[in-house]
User: Which sequence fits this backbone?
């Protein structure tokens, strides 16, 4: 065994001990965040709890990081010029109606735990440690906003883990745009003078028909889904204002923007022409990018997950996982989003997954995830060949 291998084995053991020392703190915070779900950009309590804990553990914390009130950046120790900076990313927003059914309480405390475990070892490690709170992942594009704010300009690797129904070292993500499509018509009495009205709800209905037809003429990776968020006010008035919210996704940004998006716009514009309404497109969130998988980071994740007894999925090929703004980060910084199992069956955005996020398996993922993230960061700090690759 080489000298570096001996040194790193000792560091891994110390990381495990530091995580176990903080077990109660991490699990208590995971359960508290789970019990108090907050929607995108309203995560004031979760952000405050995380910042308080980091401050108590000796981090220098900047609240209201960038332009986002519920974002934060926590740095540990003096800055080492010329050395790599690794960022642990924390997500902590919840879902409408489902609470933490995406397990962001687990994500937040994994990232926190990794930072806390590494802090006492930073004098032995050749780099800089930051923990970044990234709010509004569920539809808000918080990381995309933070990129515009310059939050990642000095970061050399960005690390996070998402809970899932299996263990994987990486996952692919779909590029995504999010619109509100608004139709405007003319109101009229629905019984006495319907012929004088221009029905905006008809345009919305035709939009759904158009989307259903388009589904047959796109590649199998494309996803399009929408809800009617306004369909009129009362039944006896021709709806003169109606709108839908839609997500449009594809495996690559090129196919999304060059093929799918223009045809989707044509569907909505065609519905306006057919009904005599006017249409307006409003971007309701920053576009999400597809994920650039960084294989060296994924391999480091796999090594440490297996070291902790986590069996990776048999095929261990990147799988589709919806969309996330970590994809945006991966286009500018080498990034990791591994997956850790918290339930063998339940998938995100379900009641069952919400329960799993506070289960014993969810708790185990917090501790394993913190250990894996900290160990991957240690590899980046002390292994120049990994950093280069």
Assistant:
């Amino acid at each position: 065994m080489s000298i570096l291998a001996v040194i790193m084995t000792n560091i891994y053991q110390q990381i495990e001990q530091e995580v176990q020392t903080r077990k109660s703190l991490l699990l208590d915070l995971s359960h508290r965040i789970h019990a108090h779900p907050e929607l995108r950009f309203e995560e004031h309590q979760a952000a405050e709890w995380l910042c308080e804990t980091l401050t108590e553990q000796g981090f220098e914390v900047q609240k209201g990081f960038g332009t986002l009130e519920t974002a934060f950046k926590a740095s540990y120790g003096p800055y080492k010029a010329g050395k790599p900076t690794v960022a642990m990313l924390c997500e902590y927003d919840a879902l409408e109606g489902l609470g933490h059914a995406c397990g962001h309480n687990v994500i937040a405390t994994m990232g926190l735990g990794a930072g806390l475990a590494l802090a006492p070892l930073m004098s032995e490690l050749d780099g800089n440690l930051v923990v970044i709170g990234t709010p509004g992942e569920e539809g808000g594009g918080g990381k995309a906003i933070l990129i515009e704010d310059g939050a990642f300009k000095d970061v050399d690797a960005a690390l996070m883990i998402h809970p899932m129904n299996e263990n994987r070292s990486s996952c692919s993500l779909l590029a995504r745009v999010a619109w509100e499509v608004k139709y405007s018509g003319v109101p009229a009495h629905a019984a006495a003078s319907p012929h004088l009205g221009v029905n905006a709800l008809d345009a919305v209905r035709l939009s759904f028909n158009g989307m259903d037809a388009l589904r047959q003429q796109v590649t199998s990776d494309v996803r399009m889904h929408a809800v009617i968020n306004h369909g009129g006010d009362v039944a006896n008035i021709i709806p003169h204002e109606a709108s839908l919210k839609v997500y449009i996704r594809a495996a690559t940004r090129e196919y999304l923007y060059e093929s799918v998006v223009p045809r989707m716009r044509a569907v909505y514009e065609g519905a306006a022409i057919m009904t005599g309404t006017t249409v307006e497109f409003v971007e309701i969130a920053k576009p999400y990018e597809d994920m650039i998988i960084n294989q060296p980071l994924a391999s480091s994740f796999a090594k440490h997950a297996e070291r902790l007894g986590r069996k990776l999925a048999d095929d261990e090929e990147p799988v589709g996982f919806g969309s996330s703004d970590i994809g945006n980060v991966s286009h500018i910084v080498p990034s990791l989003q591994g997956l850790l199992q918290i339930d063998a069956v339940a998938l995100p955005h379900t009641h069952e997954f919400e329960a799993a996020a506070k289960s014993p398996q969810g708790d185990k993922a917090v501790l394993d995830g913190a250990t894996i993230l900290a160990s991957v960061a240690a590899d980046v700090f002390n292994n120049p060949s990994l950093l280069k690759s």
Remarks:
- The longest strand covers residues 175-184.
- DSSP finds twelve helices and ten strands in the chain.
- The first helix runs from residue 3 to 21.
